[in-house]
Design brief:
The protein is mostly helical. The protein has 25 helices and three strands. The longest helix has 44 residues.
Length: 505
């Protein structure tokens, strides 16, 4: 099987798997990626190039973005990518573009997809005792990418594809049985199929994990963090063992690999000079933000706000500032705009040092509390100045766009997105923002075009074809727009046909 065909088939399998919910969360992210399964290969084959890996990663990300556990939050994503690139720029080998993103999952974990796409569970962000610990987890996953462990994994899967396909189908059936037990059964089935491949290749897994540990530690130290960060995360994972008990075969909870890795990490850390790393202000702010965003219900937001109010009584310094910020975020989620503004002001006055996270939060709270159009215009001017101060900040761009939309300045919004924004056309939200403004302006072809592109980026090719068909029928765009629509519609139709063939193999 060619590399291109294998990538298409693997992506098709992930497409089939993603909508089942529990399977993606428990099986794909936890069993196949979080554990870095030890059954995946010899040396990385010449067939699978970095470009192939990136292409596969892009296809898989369309499924990740469509999953409910994907957390589309500009503040958290921007922080993770800033921290991630601080590490990546200090890695020995840096041949990939990286993208770091949060997954709404309370367990302590992170995982890497092909091509440099790295997920960090919200539970890891919240539970990290310091920024070096979070950086250590991310550095370990960066090591898996730079050392091409994922390429080796995929090459190894080629010779066992039938077994893997069978396990995925069984996992889907188990998940559709419903409930938590179905999700856990799905994870166990997927892990069980991999067990058949473990014995002959276990040494590779030990080597790969140790190599990722070593590379992660080196990267962590070069980037200026405390090298004990990675060791600290491993120690807590070993003591809690929550993840292994809930989703994997029992042998993993007693497997000596973790103990051996801990000993190796402790030895290597002791050889490095002691280094103290001061946590950034944004680390504390994002921890509190994620505590709120990990909730998804009104009752959940109420509960976390009460918890934060209780913690605030004994807090001081940065901890107090961060809690005030968290209370502002929780209050916004509860549509308590007055409280959101009050806490935003307190956070800004208590915190020392500059923070785009704090500034954006205060701008949002001021805008939501502005009672007149003139008052909102005044906040909008401040938001524009913030974009100019932080030209590479997606969260500042998104903030400005939201305000423009609410004020009905759709032409200005479109010009900004197309010419002055840091937001990427590879992000589904970029096209969603354009689509809703074109709708307000009555430009149907452009509205449907960007809605279609949003669906294409989410991996919903059939829905994308439908939207582009509507764009073609509306026919109210200029010559260049309609030519773009026609060409993209042909491309998407071919893609839909190919995806159908891949599923039928």
């Amino acid at each position: 099987m060619s590399t291109k065909s294998f990538i298409a088939l693997l992506a098709a399998l992930c497409t089939a798997l993603a909508p089942t919910g529990p399977v993606f969360a428990a099986s794909a992210s936890q069993s196949a990626l979080d554990l870095n399964l030890p059954s995946l290969g010899t040396a990385a084959g010449a067939e699978l190039s970095p470009a192939d890996e990136y292409e596969l990663g892009k296809q898989l990300m369309t499924q990740v973005r469509a999953d409910p556990t994907y957390m589309s939050d500009p503040e958290t994503s921007e922080y993770l990518n800033r921290l991630g690139y601080q590490l990546v720029s200090n890695a020995q080998t840096y041949t990939y573009g990286f993208f770091f993103f949060p997954i709404r999952d309370e367990t302590l974990n992170a995982f890497a997809l092909p091509g440099g796409f790295i997920a960090v569970h919200t539970g890891t962000i919240i539970s990290a005792q310091n920024e070096s610990e979070l950086a250590g987890v991310m550095g370990h996953e960066i090591g898996h990418v730079t050392q091409r462990h994922i390429a080796r994994m995929i090459e190894g899967q080629k010779s066992n594809l039938a077994l893997t396909v069978g396990s995925i189908l069984l996992a889907i059936l188990a998940a559709r049985a419903g409930g938590d037990s179905g999700g856990h059964a799905a994870a166990a089935i997927a892990m069980g199929s991999q067990a058949a491949m473990i014995q002959s290749q276990l040494n590779y897994s030990q080597d790969a994990e140790r190599e990722a540990d070593r590379v992660g530690l080196q990267t962590l130290y070069r980037a200026g963090f405390d090298p004990h960060g990675l060791e600290g995360f491993f120690a807590r994972l070993q003591s809690s063992n929550r993840f292994y008990r809930s989703a994997a075969p029992a042998y993993l909870s007693t497997h000596p690999l973790t103990t051996e890795r801990m000993a190796d990490m402790e030895n290597r850390t002791r050889q490095l000079p002691t280094r103290m790393h001061a946590d950034s202000l944004d680390f504390s702010l994002i921890q509190q933000r994620v505590r709120v965003l990990q909730e998804t219900t009104h009752d959940g937001y109420l509960k976390i706000r009460k918890n934060m109010e209780r913690e605030l009584r004994n807090a001081s310094g940065t901890a107090r500032c961060a809690l005030e910020y968290g209370l502002s975020v929780a209050s916004e989620k509860l549509n308590d705009n007055a409280a959101a503004l009050e806490h935003a002001k307190k956070a800004s006055s208590l915190c020392t040092g500059e923070s785009a996270v704090l500034e954006r939060n205060l701008l949002r709270a001021r805008f939501r509390n502005a009672g007149t159009t003139a008052a909102k215009d005044a906040v909008l001017k401040d938001a524009k100045r913030a974009v100019e101060r932080y030209p590479l900040s997606d969260m500042m761009s998104a903030n400005y766009v939201d305000m423009l939309y609410e004020l009905g300045r759709h032409e200005e919004l479109i010009r900004f997105l197309r010419n002055g924004s840091s937001l990427s056309p590879d992000d589904p939200d970029y096209h969603a923002l354009l689509a809703r403004s074109y709708e307000k302006l009555g430009k149907k072809s452009l509205q449907y075009q960007h809605t279609g592109e949003m669906y294409a980026l989410l991996g919903a090719t059939e829905a994308a074809v439908y939207q582009y068909g509507m764009a073609q029928k509306a026919a109210d765009g200029d010559f260049y727009t309609m030519s773009e629509i026609d060409a993209r519609l042909r491309e998407l139709r071919q893609q839909m046909i190919q995806e159908k063939k891949d599923r039928e193999r």
